[in-house]
Amino acid sequence: MTEENNFDDYASKIWDNEPSVAKDRIRWHTSNYHIKAGQLTIDDTIADALEVLDIIPEEVGISVSTEEWQKKYMDDPRMIVAMAKLIYRKLNKHERYNFNHEPNWEAVAIEYMKKEAG
């Protein structure tokens, strides 16, 4: 398995095995109370992906220690990209995003991280 596939696999494991991730996001995207149609920006999607990555990896079936996860994965743009892509593809049908096409996730994630670093 390539490293890129690892990121996609990890994102899927988080979506499938962290109870609050899929459940909460589906609820938010299907109600007009939490998120209105067309409200979410690309930066919102990246921020959401970053939030989702704050996990204990062993609890979702990822065989990486929490320390290693925090050092190598949580802030890695490739992991952020994998999670953002998965979230967007799973939830785009609910029309909460204000963009109609998948952006260059890698470029967006890197730019977002630069802005956050200040």
End-to-end Cα distance, whole Å, is 35 Å
Average pLDDT across residues? 93
Structural class: mainly alpha
Assembly level: single chain
Query: Would you count the extended β strands for me?
Result: 0
Q: Helical segment tally?
A: 6
As for the number of domains, it is: 1
**What composes the largest sheet?**
none
Uncertain residue ranges: none
Rough shape? globular
Q: Tell me the Rg in angstroms.
A: 14 Å
Tell me what portion of residues adopts beta-strand conformation: under 5%
Helix content: 55-70%
**Topology as a string of helices (H) and strands (E):** HHHHHH
Descriptors:
mainly alpha; 118 residues
What is this structure's SSE topology?
Elements: H1 3-17, H2 19-30, H3 42-52, H4 66-72, H5 77-91, H6 105-117
